[in-house]
């Protein structure tokens, strides 16, 4: 059988031969292993035609860079745990890592971890998202999980562990965008009146007048405020605090780390604003300048009262001892402000919607609005559509214009 004899092929070329075991074999060089030796893949079939077809398919997959790397195969669970701790954690922000870590630990590993990474299909993901929502997870949570695994699998593709990213093909959970009603001018005035009775009252004026995000407002430092020139620079974001126990194993307090009497902060208080658009300068209205000067004087009095207990950290909106405000406490103060002002409930972020709507009502040019709100140029139009709302006064103005045109009698009659 002349066609069954094994012949020597040039280095790197595939080979097909008939073995002593009575089967046809193929060897395909697909790359180089980590130790520098050629990565030769073995194929075994019953007939020469079958092994030839399989060899050609592997060669095409090699040329298209769709072959998995050699070595022990990853499961979805082992890859996600490796990715989130060793690849994502060193390079993303603390808040982004927290979101990834929760998605991986709480949802993805329990739900999909047993799958082999190279055998995960889009249908597996879509079924998993449906099960998540069937067990009570919101569409927003499922959508966030989808984004996390899409990023993780994209890195696996980039590193050659899998040929394609099934999360790019799978349909993401559908999100129904909420209809958000900004507060009208009368409500804003009621909120400002009620806020004037609170400590750090300027905090809420900044939110409603300038549209600062919570992290931007709580991360504001006096060095970023120029009251004489009338502007504020947005450069820092307050991070949510994270703690570990400080009580030690010998005398555990039995509480969660955040409530430990000797808790230790494990996360920095603030970070620099990451985007170019987010780092911005915003002009201050004269009434707000006056209010911030008063706020500065009140804080100076608190500094004197606290004495040696005062922490000089330079925060515009600080605790009674000068430290940073907790985002969680800030949120609850907002909710109490709404109740005390007799205003309908709303998210803290709705103050930002309100500020954007005021800018629309004033007819501020788009480019100026984008700068004040800190929107990236590429998505600014979408953000304006999301944040700026057609309000009652605008609708009444248009209705009046239509009425004047259709029902006003022609002049001269």
TrEMBL record:
It holds the Pfam family Phage_int_SAM_3. SUPFAM superfamilies: DNA breaking-rejoining enzymes. Gene3D superfamilies: 1.10.150.130, Intergrase catalytic core. Residues 32-50 have a biased composition (Basic and acidic residues). Residues 178-400 form the Tyr recombinase domain. PROSITE patterns: CB, TYR_RECOMBINASE. Belongs to the 'phage' integrase family. This is Site-specific integrase.
